[in-house]
From TrEMBL:
Belongs to the peptidase M48 family. This is Peptidase M48, Ste24p. Residues 10-86 form the DUF7092 domain. GO terms for biological process: proteolysis involved in protein catabolic process. It comes from Rhodopseudomonas palustris (strain BisB5). It holds the Pfam family DUF7092. The keyword Membrane applies.
């Protein structure tokens, strides 16, 4: 009948159709025979037997040609050793050391790929995608950002008539020199924060605290021209795509403009705004071109920024900062003198009216 019959060791068989435990004995012939009370419950070809997960000291087996959930548990070490000798492919589906190394290697490669996409891929996507976004889309994002800005920094737009008239004169000169259309909509926002900010869609806010610190129209004109440069290059949308990453792109694909994508910009990008070195350099270049076109110096803008931010000369910061340091920018602006002096941008009376626009 059967060759090489072992002593009947205890084993437990699960047929894969029910959860019933069946005490069985085993017989080795040209295959593994699983017996209960002399009746063959299953016969597994040795080549089809595979090791399954089991407790320490317990050999747990499955069979690729048997029902998927069928299992055989062999607690006897001697029988387990005999089985292992006959089952040439016992560990064929179990990751070996080289397999584990391969899994770890591919996992590390995936992590590196994600990092590379974040560092290099998203900026490239942002540079390519931002110029293609419709103005209507950008304005909708800007509307949400505008509400966030007004909530956080103050909802009052300064509109004292004389100051508003002087501001309009200054803005019109900057628009003409920079060939900027009506899409740019600057305003003075009453706020205790010394800053200026450009939003998607063309809104530019000059905060009143920064205006209070200014000594002359050239300082404010340079700051506004710098922000106009960000608008012209659509830097805020580039920054949004870079910082928002995949969540913003998914929102963009599904038309979620006023939801997660815009809120990412408002809460993460605007509130912690930090343009890249390249974006800040290019915005400065735009401002320099505008001020030179008006025959006005660029240095006053740098002096104002330097007064507001103070000295920042730590070389480690200079390397790691996401935009050029104020002193570095001041040195550049000081070297960029206008070729021919132009007329003052505002009269003394207009300047005083602008300074009092929020009074």
């Amino acid at each position: 009948m059967m060759s090489d019959v072992s002593a009947p060791p205890p084993a437990v068989f699960f047929d894969g159709a029910s959860s019933r435990r069946r005490p069985v004995t085993l017989a080795f012939s040209d295959r593994l025979e699983i017996l209960q009370d002399g009746r063959t419950l299953a016969a597994w070809p040795f080549a089809d037997i595979r090791r399954a997960d089991g407790a320490p000291g317990l050999l747990r087996l499955g069979c690729v040609s048997a029902p998927a959930l069928a299992r055989l548990e062999v607690p006897d070490p001697a029988i387990a050793q005999q089985l292992a000798a006959r089952c040439s492919y016992l560990d064929a589906d179990v990751p070996q050391r080289h397999g584990v190394r391969a899994i770890v290697g591919w996992s590390l490669a995936a992590i590196v790929s994600l990092v590379l996409v974040s560092v290099y891929g998203m900026p490239l996507i942002a540079d390519r995608l931002a110029p293609l976004l419709p103005q209507a889309f950008e304005r909708r994002v800007g509307d949400v950002a505008d509400r966030q800005i007004r909530t956080l920094f103050g909802d009052k737009v300064c509109d004292r008539p004389a100051g508003q008239a002087a501001f309009a004169v200054l803005v019109e000169k900057l628009r003409a020199a920079g060939s900027i259309g009506e899409t740019v909509q600057p305003a003075v926002l009453s706020s205790e924060i010394s800053n200026a900010i450009a939003l998607p869609g063309g809104r530019v806010y000059l905060f009143s605290a920064l205006l209070d610190k200014a000594d002359n129209p050239d300082e404010i004109a340079g700051v506004l021209a710098h922000e106009f440069g960000h608008v012209a290059r659509r830097d805020n949308m580039r920054h949004l795509i870079r910082e928002g990453g995949s969540s913003f792109l998914i929102g963009l694909l599904f038309g979620d403009v006023t939801g997660s994508g815009a809120l990412i910009f408002a809460s993460r990008t605007l509130l912690n705004s930090s343009y890249s070195r390249e974006a800040e350099h290019d915005a400065d270049s735009f401002a320099i071109g505008v001020m030179h076109g008006l025959g006005r110096p660029v240095k006053p803008m740098g002096e104002l920024l330097f007064r507001v931010t103070g000295k920042q000369r730590d070389s480690s910061i200079s390397i790691l900062a996401s935009h050029p340091l104020t002193e570095d920018r001041l040195a550049r602006m000081s070297a960029e003198a206008a070729m021919s002096p132009g007329a003052p941008l505002l009269s003394a009376e207009q300047w005083q009216a602008l300074k009092a626009i929020c009074k």
